[in-house]
Specification:
This protein has 539 residues and is mainly alpha-helical. It has 21 helices and no strands.
């Protein structure tokens, strides 16, 4: 330190900045509250997403953007829809606020409510599975009206194989809700790894047992769902859950959650109508169009699932707590922190995916059965999806705000508006733009949904203090613009260099430059506090 005192002012200032930066980096080891949970969820989700990407790489290699994979996606639509409807969507989102309320008052009653919900699902899901298997020949022709008869029959057969998935993943979703309400986020965020492993094993190994390998992929789906469930069960016991053999009469808390679930179901049905319409219209286009939508959506959902879902999952129990305790100012602060973090992370992610979408798709998917034409179609779809990334992030966060206030009706009304926009634009744009028109309609509907929720939240609750400050938003935009320029020029430069492992390094160099330049610009623009103030937010 004495030598530092003797140096010029500029040197002392530089050393002091370095000391502060090192101190902040070391303090990452002491993360607490919301930031700790976001990091835990994001890290576990990152592992899951890596496995998800590997799953998609394996599928692209084995099946490409083909008619067989189109049939699989149609077969998976209904059980995935029910998963969103009866499990990870409506049930979990309506269950957590009520369960959190009981945890604050009486842990024994909270355990009774959770047991009642689990027992009810064990009773209901076998009936749902039986109906799905029996009715598959009736709803598949409606979902894929453009399929030729052979592909339609393949979709029916695949539906009967994948449908038991809903039972396993439905129970896993309720376990997830219990653990999240207890602020244990690791196991629920990591559990989808086992789903991805099941699907990967189905595609790589089980497919060899069938004359049509796509059936191996289908069998991997329920196997993966079971893995997702069984991984989480030991954590229930560890966090003090005690099972009770009760079904009827329904627990008062479960009745309340089920009443709240009604509007949420309608909202999720509305959201899935968008996917249904997209798939139905895409079934009339070039074979592989549904597959291209799926591959592009997987990349689109990567930052959304990794960061926005992590943030919204972490803030839901906190928002519910502050609402139950009447701490309105802290409620707004938690929501604002979530919105600021989403803007800070997702805006550069959208720009990066837009600039590097083609080399990413080429590196991950373009081999064996996935052709250069499939790459061009998938990238064109991805670029239009990205327009709606921030809109869908707002939907993730603001719906949690409404649910924590136990208002499930307003998000439904807004989602119905978004459905109308999506379907209308689908029909208007599919003629001139083909599959790209479906992507543009989806992106526009996301912007409408997020913007309308923002207006409705402010109007409905007269809430203030939850929006990011305009100067901060301007600094983020400035940082993202600088990052975008660095990524663009570094990618062009990398393409001209004689590099080993050309495809990989041509992508890695601009990615590294983009991440480094964005954080450097964020520091220069004074945005350090954006992350560090969240670190100090207590439980």
């Amino acid at each position: 330190m004495k030598e530092e005192q003797k140096g010029p002012d500029g040197e002392r200032d530089l050393l002091e900045r370095a000391r502060l930066l090192v101190g902040k980096l070391l303090s990452l080891l002491q993360l607490k509250g919301l930031a700790k949970d976001v990091v835990v969820i994001a890290a576990a989700t990152a592992v899951s997403r890596v496995f998800g990407l590997f799953r998609d790489i394996v599928i692209a290699d084995r099946f490409g953007a083909s008619g067989a994979y189109d049939a699989y996606l149609i077969a998976f639509f209904v059980p995935h829809f029910l998963r969103r409807l009866l499990a990870e969507g409506a049930l979990a989102l309506s269950f957590i606020p009520v369960y959190t309320e009981y945890l604050k008052k009486d842990r024994r009653e909270a355990a009774a409510m959770a047991s009642n919900a689990l027992n009810l699902l064990v009773l209901v899901f076998p009936l749902v599975i039986g109906l799905g298997v029996y009715l598959a020949p009736h709803f598949i022709p409606f979902l894929a009206s453009g399929f030729p008869p052979e592909r339609r029959q393949l979709a029916v057969s695949l539906t009967r194989v994948v449908f038991p998935f809903i039972g396993a993943v439905g129970l896993a979703a309720l376990v997830m809700g219990v653990l999240n309400a207890k602020k244990h986020f690791f196991a629920p965020a990591f559990a989808p790894v086992f789903f991805n492993v099941g699907v990967i094993c189905g595609a790589l190994f089980l497919g060899r047992l069938f004359s049509r390998p796509i059936f191996g992929l289908a069998i991997g789906v329920p196997l993966g769902g079971l893995g997702q469930l069984f991984f989480q069960l030991p954590f229930l016991k560890r966090y003090g859950f005690r099972w009770e053999p009760r079904i009827f009469p329904l627990h008062p808390g479960l009745k309340k959650a089920l009443r709240m679930m009604g509007p949420v179901v309608v909202g999720l049905v509305a959201a899935q109508i968008n996917v249904l319409v997209d798939n139905k219209l895409a079934s009339h286009l070039h074979p592989g169009s549904i597959s291209s939508l799926q591959y592009a959506m997987r990349l689109f959902q990567l930052p959304l699932g990794l960061f926005s879902v992590a943030i919204s999952t972490a803030i839901l129990p906190r928002l519910s707590e502050r609402q139950a305790e009447g701490r309105a100012k802290e409620f707004s602060e938690v929501l604002r922190d979530g919105l600021e973090l989403s803007l800070f992370i997702l805006l550069p992610a959208a720009v990066g995916l837009f600039l590097l979408g083609r080399p990413i798709v080429e590196l991950l998917f373009e081999h064996n059965n996935f052709t250069g034409g499939d790459t061009l179609r998938t990238v064109s779809v991805l670029n239009l999806y990205l327009i709606g990334l921030l809109g869908y992030s707002l939907v993730q966060l603001l719906t949690r705000g409404f649910y924590s206030l136990q208002d499930t009706l307003t998000p439904v009304l807004v989602s119905l508006l978004a459905v109308g926009v999506n379907v209308g634009l689908d029909l208007a744009l599919i003629g001139p733009l083909g599959v790209r028109g479906l992507a543009l309609a989806t992106a526009t509907a996301g912007l409408v949904n997020g913007g309308a929720l923002l207006v409705a939240f402010r109007y409905r609750f007269r809430a203030g203090g939850f929006l990011p400050a305009l100067p901060l938003a301007a600094r983020i935009l400035l940082g993202v613009s600088g990052m975008g320029g660095m990524v663009f020029f570094s990618h062009k430069l990398a393409e001209t260099l004689p590099l080993p492992a050309e495809e990989f390094l041509t992508l890695l160099i601009p990615l590294s430059v983009g991440v480094g330049s964005y954080f450097a610009l964020s520091h220069l623009l004074g945005m350090d506090d954006l992350i560090w103030k969240v670190r100090d937010l207590g439980d």
